[in-house]
Amino acid sequence: MNLCKIWVCFIIASFFVFTLNAQKDSIEVERLYKHGVDSLRIKTGNSLRTLESALHIINDSILTKDKNDRYFLLKKALILDELCHYYRKDTEYVQSLKAIQESLKLKEKIGETYTLPKTYYLYGRLYFYKKDSIKALKFYNKALTLSKKYKNDKEFIRTLYYLSHYYVSIKDLEKGKMYGQWGLRYSDSIGYDFGKSLALSNLSYYELRNKNYAKLISYSNKNIELCKKINDRIGLQRSYKRLGYAYRKTGHPNKAVLYYKKAFDMVMDLGIEGLIANRCLSLSNAYTDIGNHELAFMYYRCYKRQQIKDMKVKSIKEFAEIEAKYNYERQKVVDSIHFLEKQKIKETQLLQKASTKFWKVTTILVILFGLIITTIIFLLRKRKEQLMLGKLKNEMLQQEIHYKQKDISDFALNISRNRKWREELLAHIKDIKKSGILKNDSKFNALEKTVLEREFVENNMINFQDKVDVLNTAFYEKLHKKYPTLTKTEAKLCSLIRLNIDNNEIAVLQNVAVESVYRSRSRLRKKLNLSPKDDLNAILQKL
After folding, report:
1. In this structure, are residues 235 and 213 in contact, taking their beta carbons and an 8 Å threshold?
2. For residues 57 and 526, what is the distance between their CA atoms, to the nearest angstrom?
3. 313, 322 in Cβ contact below 8 A?
4. Which residues neighbour 309 within 8 Å (Cβ) at sequence distance 6 or greater?
5. How do residues 35-54 score in pLDDT, each as one tens digit?
6. Of 457, 419, 451, 418, which is closest to residue 443 (Cα–Cα)?
7. What is the value of pTM for the model shown?
8. Which of 127, 390, 394, 444 sits at a 20 to 30 Å CA gap from 184?
């Protein structure tokens, strides 16, 4: 009985020891994981060592205890996800890829789905850094699909962030803007301030690439307020740096120095060694714009020294070589500063000369242009006056033609009356002859007088036709051109019709019967291809 009690106590004690040991491991892993993730964006070296320590504890626990412990397997997968960040930034792409692949296998083994989107967008980030944009986009889209499927809002927003950054980097700015705005709207809808900060950072990056500095300033200011609210100091210093860049590009170097300095101070305070060189170079450029070459050179020297540190020099010889290179570069900078100052003086002089020359040439061109415009206006006015004079002459000519046409019409009427009178006279002569009265008879004398006047009538007829022909010379040309088959007789008939002489008078003038005139008009209509509805007089008037 005592032996049984001893065994039971031993088993219970062993169970408690095992449980406490397992909990101790899990607590230590949790602590190391949190510390590693928190310092990943700041001190990557410390983060790497912390995460690798957590990984060793997990591997030991899995080997000595339960190989299928879900907590340790999931935690190992998450640590591998974080480690791939460090490997990728250190350009150890093979090691980064192995970490991602192992993380995916572990998640598949334990059936983990919620954190899968993160692994896939890390896949995309790796291929993006390797400049394989097709594979990068494939894994980004996979991460987006999985985050929607498993309702992981935070990873969905982060994937939108990476997609936006991806499209802006490959210069598809519109798509980059679209994903950035999508991320902003979605973050706002769920009240995720860190997601909003990421989206604003992306939109400011889009405006930076688009060279729209006014909007870049707007987005950066909004992000600064948000980063202060959520205490995101890394995002805050990034926004300060972009504000400095925007002000430098828009010609405000003093403001650029102010914000670059804030970004530099925050980087130094956080101890983000990887960003020190970049911030020093930005300050050097801004001080150069101001003209403070002493401070510009000081920050440039700081930039070069940081570059030397980042190279991870392992020997005195290497350091000496780099130091010599640095001194050479420093002297080059000093020389270039002096050269730039001289160059600026020369450029100023050249600009003044160019400006003087430009204004001289512009003045001459303006004078010439003014003379050309004045000449054109003068010629146009003269041309207008000539046209008005020509129009007036044409009106006077038309009026004269109208009066002559009226005279001819009146003349034609007189000839017609004379013809009728002559016919009556001939009839009177016949009567005299029939009566057998002699010469001395008054009727015979009247006959003699009428015969004498016959030549005058015939001459009038000839003069009338000549006048008609002269007046209608242009009309005959147009008529012949349009209707070449018309005879001279038909053309003369057209001219008489055009003068509005009626058929009876035309018959008298042409010494024919009225019925003959009607037949001639009918033939004329056929030759002119006129229908019964067409007005012959109106058509001839238009020619």
Report:
1. no
2. 119
3. yes
4. 273
5. 555 555 545 556 667 777 76
6. 451
7. 0.52
8. 127
